[in-house]
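Long-time lurker. I teach an intro course on protein structure, and each term I like to show students one example going from raw sequence to a predicted 3D structure in token notation. This year I'd like something fresh instead of my usual example. Would anyone be willing to generate the tokens for the chain below so I can use it in lecture? Attribution to the forum is fine with me.
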Amino acid sequence: MKKLKRNSKAWKDRVDALCERESHLCQCCGKWLQRNESAAHHIKTFGSSGNDNLDNLALVCTKCHFKIHSGNLKIKGI
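-- Reply from a regular --
Happy to contribute to a lecture. Here you go:
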């Protein structure tokens, strides 16, 4: 599957759907997020055969997203 461009309408629509699915809550710390505070984290990376499908994304705040990629935090239940 082709990676969506991050500034495309398709990607923005995907993140909006993710925000709705997760009720705008960070899946790590539980903080309610405005759209500009949120990040779509890939559960399975493209390098590990991941994709941009909604079922492979988790909504996290930007602080938690940094901690995940630093290896200091894991998403609940994953």
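Some talking points for your students: The longest helix spans residues 9-21. The helical segments are 9-21, 62-70.
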